[in-house]
What we know:
- The complex is a heterotrimer of chains A (563), B (739) and C (104).
- Chain A has 563 residues and is mainly alpha-helical.
- Chain A has helices spanning 3-26, 33-57, 87-106, 115-134, 138-147, 149-159, 164-193, 203-221, 231-254, 263-270, 273-298, 300-305, 307-326, 331-351, 355-386, 397-400, 402-415, 422-436, 443-449, 451-467, 474-477, 484-502, 505-523, 534-537, and strands at residues 66-74, 79-85.
- The mean pLDDT of chain A is 89.
- Chain B has helices at 4-7, 13-18, 21-41, 43-70, 112-135, 142-161, 165-183, 190-225, 232-236, 238-249, 257-271, 277-280, 293-311, 320-323, 329-338, 343-350, 352-355, 359-380, 386-406, 410-437, 450-453, 455-469, 475-489, 498-525, 543-558, 560-563, 578-596, 609-636, 644-654, 659-706, 714-738; strands at residues 76-77, 84-86, 89-99, 102-110, 491-492, 568-569, 575-576, 600-601.
- In chain B, a hairpin with a 6-residue loop joins β1 (76-77) and β2 (84-86).
- The longest helix of chain B is centred in the C-terminal third of the chain and has 48 residues, at 659-706.
- Chain B is globular and about 120 Å long.
- Chain C is mainly α and 104 residues long.
- Chain C contains 3 helices and no strands.
- The model of chain C has no long low-confidence stretch (mean pLDDT 92).
- At the A-B interface, α7, α13, α15, α18 and α19 of A face β3, α7, α8 and α30 of B.
Amino acid sequence: MTAAQLQPYLLTLIVFLPLLGAGLLLFLPREEFGQVRAWTLLAMGIDLALAVVAYLAFDPKGAEFQLEVRRAWSPEFGISYHLGVDGLSVSLVLLTGFLGPVVVLSSWKFIHERVKEFHISLLLIQAAMMGTLVSLDLILFYVFFEAMLIPMYLLIGVWGSERRREAAMKFFLYTLFGSLVMLVAILAVYFIGQPAGARSFDYGTVYNSLLSANRQLAACTQGVGCATLAPLAVTLQAWGPLMFLAFALAFAIKVPMVPLHTWLPEAHVEAPVAGSIILAGVMLKMGTYGFWRFAIPLFPVAAYQFRPLFVALAVVGIVYGALMCLAQQDVKKLIAYSSISHLGICMLGIFAFTAEAASGSAYQMLNHGVSSGALFCLFGFLYERRHTRRIGDYGGVARVMPFFAASFLVVTFSSIAVPGTNGFVGEFLVLLGAFKASSLWLGYPVLATTTVILGASYMLWMVQRVFFGPIDRPENGALRDLDLREGLTACAFMVLVLWMGLAPQPFLDRIAPATDRFVARAQLGTPDSAKVKDTDVRVTVPPIEGAPPAVPPPPVAALALPR
Amino acid sequence: MDTSWFTKAWANPQALSDNLWLIIALPAFGALVCGVFGRALGRTYVNLVACASVLASFFLSVFAFQAVAADPSVIVTSAANGQPLRFALSGDWGVWFQAGSFSAHFGLWVDHLSATMLMVVTGVGFLIHLYSTAYMEHDPGYWRFFAYLNLFMASMLTLVLADNLVLLFVGWEGVGLCSYLLIGFWYTDAANAWAGRKAFIANRVGDCAFLLAMMLLVLTVTAFARAPSAEPPAIFFAQRRAVFAHAATSEPGPLNFKVLEEFAQYIPASLAMGSKGLLGTDIPIGPLAGHTYGHTLTVIFLLLLLGAAGKSAQLPLYVWLPDAMAGPTPVSALIHAATMVTAGVYLLCRMAPLLVMSPAAMATVAVVGALTALYAALLAFAQDDLKKVLAYSTISQLGYMFLGVGVGFFWGAILHLVTHACFKGCLFLSAGSVMHGNDGELNIKKLGCLRKEMPWTTACFGIATLAITGIVPLSGFFSKDDILHGALHTHLLGYEWVMPTVFAIGSLGAVATAFYMSRAYLLAFTGERAKDAKVPHAHESGWVMVAPLVILAALSIVLLLHGFPGVLKTPAGQPETLMEAFLKPVFGVADKLAVEAHSLEPETESNPWPGFVIALALAWVGGAAAWYLYKRVFPARAGKPVPAVFAAVRSFTVHKFYVDELYDAVLVRPIKLLSIGLFRVVDEGLIDTVLVGGTGWVTARIGSLLRYLQTGDVQAYAAMMAVGLLAGVGYAIFEVLAK
Amino acid sequence: MEISPVDTQNYLLLAATLFCTGMLGVLVRRNALVVFMSIELMLNAANLTFLAAARERLDSTGHLAALFVIAVAAAEAAIGLAIVIAVFRNRGTVNVEDIRTMKY
C-alpha cells in the first residue's frame, strides 16, 4: 500500500487507535500496573507518531480540508462519517498527540488504585478529543464532544483530591448543559437550511446551504435589499442570533469565558495531574476551536452583532483572570485562573476578525497547551513529593531541586510571554491584530496589553514564594530533584517552548490558510462582506464513498416556522 | 606608511555581514555550556568558557567596528527606496514570524551607532567577566552566575544588533530577564528575590508601554503605506511609494529601522506641498483614522519614553535600580551601569529620525531626563551604602543622557553613554574591590583610610570620581558639559522654555553630583579608619580584579578625545568633535530631517569654552562644599546633637522620599485588595454561590417539591392516568364536534 | 329465519360500558385481585372495539390486534399475579391501600 492509499485511513487510525488500546487493556490483569502503563504509553506513542505523520502530510498550499474520508453512517438522517483536517485542527491534533504520552508519564508513580481503569479512561479521552478535532459532521462532532465528558468525570471524581465528587459533578453538569443547548441549535440548523429529503448534518453542506442567505442578511444589515430576502434569510434573521448564542454558550462554557468559568478552578484543583494536563492542554481549546469552526462561520451576521459583547468578555477574562491569580493561596487554582486569562487572549484574537489576530489566537492555543500543560505537569511532580497545594507550605525549593526550578522558570517565562519563548509570538500577533481590527474600541487591546504586567506579577510572585527564599520547613529541605522520567518530560517541554518561540514560522505556515478562510468567513457578516468572494469561503464537500451520485437538491421552499 | 590599512576593512565585510549572528551566538552557547555542564566542568573551565566566548565576541566586534568605521565601501541600501542609507554591515536570516500583513525578520546590522554600542558592551563586558572570575571565586553557584552573565551578553548584543523593533524587543526583554535572574542570584535571602521581582515588574510596566508604542507605530506606518494616492505625500513620491508600501506591508515588515527611517523622510518633504504637512494630516484609514500623524507620533514616543524609563530607571520607574544593588557587584557594574540601563537611550537614539518630528515628545524626554538627574542626585546625598550612592548616581547620569536626547543632541548622549560606561563601571568594580577587601562592608561611614591600604583601588576610584564630577581633563567633563552646552544653545520650536530650564536643572545636578561623589570618596577612602570598621586593615585585591579597574580608569581619561571640541571641522566650517563626526552618518539624517521639519534648530553658539569654564567652576563648588562639610564642619560638631530640621530632611532623604511607600499604597496594595475583594465577592460569592450554586439549589428545591406526587398509592396513579385519558378523549371529541 | 345484523354502534357502546366499569373497578376496589380482574375487563373492552371496527371495515387487521391484545393480557396477568402472590407472602395482605411503601 502506498502512502497515498494509506492517507484516507490515517485520521480513522488516529481517532480509534486509543480505543483499540483501551480494549486491549481490558484483557490485562488488574494487578499488572507496569504492563498497563507500558501498553498505554505504547498506544499513546503510536498515536503521537501518527499525528506527526498527519501533520507532515498536511500541505499548506493544498485544499482546505485534507486527509478526508467520508462514509455513509445513517443516510436517512443525513449523518455521515466524515473526517478531515485543516491547518488549525491538524496542529491541535499534533498537540493532543504530544500530550498523550506526557500524561501517561506524569502519572506513572502517581496513581496506585484502579490503575487499569485509570488508563482506560485516559485512552478514551484521547480518542474522544482526537475525534472532536477531526469531525466534519455535526452529529459526529457532537458525539465526540460529549464523549469527552464521562471519562473526564471519572478521572476527576475517582482519582482526584478531597472534594473531587463535587468538582466532578459541577464540571459534568455545567458543560453538559451547554452542550445540550448546542444540540438544539444543531437540530435547528439541520432543519432550516435544507429541503426535506436532502437534509444533511455534514458541516460543509450546511455551511454552503446557509451561504447565500448569510450574504443577503449581511447586505440587509447595511440597509440593502431588506425587502427581497429569501425565506431562509428571513428565518436566519429571526433565529440566527439565538442559534449563534446556543452554539456560543456551549463553547463559552468550555473555553471558559467569564462569567461561566467557575467550574474550571475547582476541576483543576481536584483533578489528578493527568486530568489537569488534559483539561488545560486540550479540552479548553475545544471551546475556541468550536467558535472558529462552527459558531462564527455558520452565523457570521449574528457573530458580528454580538462581537462587542464577546470582545468585552474576552478582555474582562484577561484582566479578571489575572487579578484572581493574585488572590490565590493554592498553586493549581492560580494556574487555572491564569489559563482563563490566557484563553481570554485567544478569544480576543478570534473575535477581532483580522488575519494577524486569528493567526496569533490559533498559535496561542498551541502555546497555551504546551505551557499550561507543562506548568501542571511540573507542579504535579512537586505535588507527588509533598502532597500539598498551598503556596505557604513551600519555600526555598530551588535550593534542593535546581533542575526542577530551572524548568519551571523556563515554562513560567513562556507563560508570561518573554520574547524567545512561544508565548510571545502568539500574544504579540493577537494584540497587533486586535489593534488593527476595524470598528473595535482601541481601549480593549490597550487593556489586554496590561496582561504583560499582571502576568509577570502573579507568576513571579508564586515562583518566589515557592522556589526562592530560605527553607524554613524541614520537609522542603528533604526533597529530591527530578529523576530520569520526570527530567525527560521537563526537557521535552522546554525544547518545545524554545523551538516554538524561535522558529514559529513552520507552524504558522500551516495555520495561515485556515486563518485566511476563517477571517473571510467572519468578514461575511461585517459591513465589508461585499469584498469576500464565494471562492474564499465555500466548502468543498466530498461525496460519500460508495453511495450513488447525489442529486442536486431542489431549491429551498418557503418554510413554515413560527416567527 | 601604508594608510590604506586604516581605510580598508581588516576582514571581508561580506563575510562579517554573513556571520554577524556569531557575535550573539557565542555568548549564548557559552551560557548553555556553563548552565548545563557547569558543575561538572569545574571552576577553571567555566571561567575559561565564559570569558573566552565574550572575548571572541569582542574580537568580532572590533572587526565589525573597524569595517564600518574605516571602509567607505561598506554600505547598505534602503529596501524602501534603493538609496544608499549609511555605512553598515547587515544580514537577514529569514522570517521569524509572519501573519497577515505583518512580518518580523531575524535581521542584524552594524552601523556606526551599533558599532559604538558593540564596543562598549563587549569591551566592558569582557573586563567584567574577567573581574568576576576573581570576585566569585568563593561562591558555590559560580556556574549559574556565568551562565546568566553570558546569557545577558547575548541578549544585550541582540538588542544592539537588531535591525527591527521586534528583535530589539527580544533583546530588551531578555536583558530584563537576566537582570531578574542576576539580582536575585543569592535567592536564599527572600529580600534579594523580591528585589529581582521588583526590577522585572517595573521593567514590565515599561515593556507594556513599549508594546503599545510598537502596535501604534505599525498602524501608523501601514496606514501611510496604504493611503489613497491622492494624498500629498503620495503625489510627491509616486515612484518610491510602491517600493515603500511593499516594504511596509510584507517584506521586511513595518518595524524595520530602515523602513521607519524612510517613513520619517517623507514627513518634511510633504511640507513642501502644503502648510499642514504630513504631521498635520489626519490618518486616512484604519483604526487610527481621524487622528493626525503628528499627534499619533507624539503618543507613540511618549509611550516609548515610558518604556525607556522603565529600562533606564528614569522617573517614574526608577524604583527598581537602588534595590537591584542586592545582586553581586559585577552585575551592578555590567547591567546597572554600563549596558542594560543604557538600552533606553539607545532605543531613543535609534528612533531619532522619527523622534525629531515630535517636539512635544522631545521636550518631555528632556524634562524627564533633567528632573531625574537632579532628583536622583539629591537622593544620593544621604545614602551611606556605597553601592546605593553609585546606583543613584547612575540614575542621575542616565538622566543627563535623556536630556541630551531630548534636546536633539544625540551624539552627545551617546558620548556620555560611552564615558559613563567606563567610569561608572570603574566605580562599581572599585566598590566591589572595597567589599572584597573589607569583608563585605559597604557603609562608607564604617570605612576610611583605604587610601593607604588599597592604593590601586583608591586611585581608580579617584580618577573615576573626577571623571564623573566633570573635572578637566577627564572624559566625563567633556561629555556631560557638551550635553549641557548643547542644551542651552539648541532650540526646540514651540518649546523654547524647555532649554533654559533643563540647563538650569542640569547644572544644579552637576553641582549635586560633585557633592555626593566627593562625599563618598572622602568618607570611604581618606581620613582615618572608622572605629566600628569590620576589619582593622583592608587588603588590596589581586591583579585579576585590579587590572579591569585600571583599564577602565585609563579609558575614562582617554575618551576625552572623543568629546574634545574643535578637533575636527565640518565641511561648513563648524568645529565638531570626533564623536560627532563618527556618528554623523547615523544622526546626520535626524538632524537634517529636524531642520527640514522645522522642529529643531541646531546649536548656534560654536564656542563652548565659556560654558565649560562655568561648569568646571560649578563642579569645584560642589566638591569643595563636600570637603568643607565632611572634613571640617562635621568632625568639629561630632558629639553635638543635630538640629531637628536637618535630621528630618536627612531622614526623609534616607527613606528615598518615601516614594516606594507611595507606590505601595497607591498601586500595589489597592490592586491586591481589589483582587482579593473581587475573588471573595464576585467569584466565590456572586458567581459561584449565587448563580451556579443557586441554579443547583433551585433545581433541587423543585425536585423536592415534585416528589410529593409520589404518594405510594397505586390507585392514585391510576386515577391520574384516567384523568389524563379523559382529558385527551374530551379534547378529541371537542375537536371533532368543532369541525 | 332472519337475524338482523347488530349495529356497530351497539358494540362500541357495550365496549365503552365495559371499559368504564373496568376503570371504575381499578380506581375504587381495594382487593388487588379484583383490580386485576378489572384490568382484564378493560382489555376485553378494547378487544371488542377492535373486532367491531374490523367487522365494519372488513379488514382483518383488527383481528390481528385483538389476538395481540389477548396474548399481552395473558402475559401481563401471569406476571402481575406472580407479583401479587409475592406481595401477599411478604405483607400478608392484598389490600392495595395497605401497600404504600414506595412513596416519598
